[in-house]
Design the sequence.
């Protein structure tokens, strides 16, 4: 299905549709190319005719393909013309159409910046191959763009960051089917491996060598995995090894993990350093975790002041952990003190927390952890699948409800 427009890209269209612009050449030549594109049934597309001289056109940042019919007698202006079309938008593939097959002009078009050169009129096979290649490239890019990094932090101790990181990791993996990895940047406490009941053979300290690039093969070799739990990039085995982990190594690791996994959850701990800032810079979400204590609220104020001074892109989102509805410190008072809305709450459940620590099981195996489980499922959807946020949470089975009544 192909639709033609002549006035821009502002009409609503399917997200999967390729937006194609035609420029240069005579009207009958552009019409011939439109007809060839319209015959391609494998790819939905929408064509905008920019005319023979598209200078000054307001470009669409979501343009998928630019096809330009070039005039060989004007080859000295090809570079300037292409730059005028690509300077104000995201770079998309550009195809040059030449009136004849000339090695000299083909080379000139490639040097001007075009990605490929075809002869006019192009064959139907040329058009099909071009559209399929662009469509697949955009599909892969969109898949990577869906991957997200989320940092959890609190400068006040005892807020349950590590527990929440693990719970959220299980929720993402079990409920949303996300390939999830946890990164332990609380390098001294190293709590994530304890909560996952792991004794890591490899840790992030093995990535400290600056002479070896951090690629997917090297990174996957130091990840820990156990049963159905998320993967883990563990903290160093010894505290003194924490000094070996540089911000540069952390940044390189996060870039690779972003490509390997759907969701990257970072336990930043309570001590801020250069690696913490790197994590914040690369995160799609920064979750600041606090409870309903005066000291936690005061620490959050200090953190938010520092965060504002750093000038980072994403505003932190407040998570009230171990929430009690009857606590003297209410959610409203926290919001007023921090001038920031509460993003989510996780209910107080000390029994679940202790069971996870002593038994080493996640709360999907604990019949009485219903409230915590539902809260983490809701938070996971809100962060990583906002379109499914209103979907019903996992319904507890009969045994779970009976245990809840017994309590």
Sequence:
């Amino acid at each position: 299905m192909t639709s033609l427009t002549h006035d821009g890209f502002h009409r609503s269209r399917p997200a999967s549709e390729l937006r194609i612009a035609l420029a240069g050449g005579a009207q009958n030549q552009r019409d011939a190319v439109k007809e060839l594109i319209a015959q391609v049934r494998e790819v939905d597309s929408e064509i905008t005719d920019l005319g023979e001289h598209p200078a000054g056109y307001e470009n669409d940042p979501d343009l998928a393909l630019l096809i330009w019919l070039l005039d060989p007698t004007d080859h000295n202006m090809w570079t300037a013309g292409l730059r005028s079309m690509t300077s104000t938008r995201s770079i998309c593939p550009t195809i040059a159409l030449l009136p004849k097959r000339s090695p000299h002009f083909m080379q000139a078009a490639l040097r001007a910046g075009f990605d490929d050169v075809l002869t006019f009129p192009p064959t139907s096979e040329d058009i099909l191959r071009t559209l399929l290649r662009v469509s697949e490239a955009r599909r892969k890019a969109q898949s990577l763009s869906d991957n997200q990094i989320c940092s959890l932090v609190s400068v006040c101790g005892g807020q349950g960051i590590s527990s929440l990181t693990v719970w959220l990791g299980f929720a993402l993996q079990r409920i949303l089917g996300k390939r999830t990895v946890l990164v332990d940047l609380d390098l001294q406490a190293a709590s994530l491996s304890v909560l996952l009941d792991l004794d890591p053979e490899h840790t992030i300290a093995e990535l400290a060598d600056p002479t070896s690039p951090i690629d997917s093969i090297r990174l996957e070799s130091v990840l820990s995995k156990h049963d159905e739990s998320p993967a883990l990039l563990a903290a160093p085995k010894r505290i003194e090894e924490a000094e070996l982990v540089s911000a540069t190594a952390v940044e390189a690791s996060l870039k690779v993990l972003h490509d390997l996994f759907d969701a990257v959850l970072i336990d930043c701990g309570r001590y801020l350093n250069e690696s913490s800032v790197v994590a914040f810079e690369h995160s799609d979400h920064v979750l600041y975790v606090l409870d309903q204590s005066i000291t936690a609220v005061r620490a959050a104020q200090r953190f938010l002041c520092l965060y504002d001074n750093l000038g980072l892109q994403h505003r932190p989102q407040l998570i009230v952990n171990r929430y009690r509805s009857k606590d003297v410190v209410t959610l409203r008072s926290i919001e007023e003190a921090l001038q920031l809305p509460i993003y989510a709450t996780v209910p107080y459940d000390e029994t679940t927390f202790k069971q996870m620590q002593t038994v080493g099981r996640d709360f999907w195996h604990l019949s009485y952890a219903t409230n915590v489980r539902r809260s983490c499922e809701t938070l996971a959807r809100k962060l990583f699948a906002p379109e499914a946020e209103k979907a019903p949470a996992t319904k507890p089975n009969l045994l779970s409800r009976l245990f809840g009544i017994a309590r």
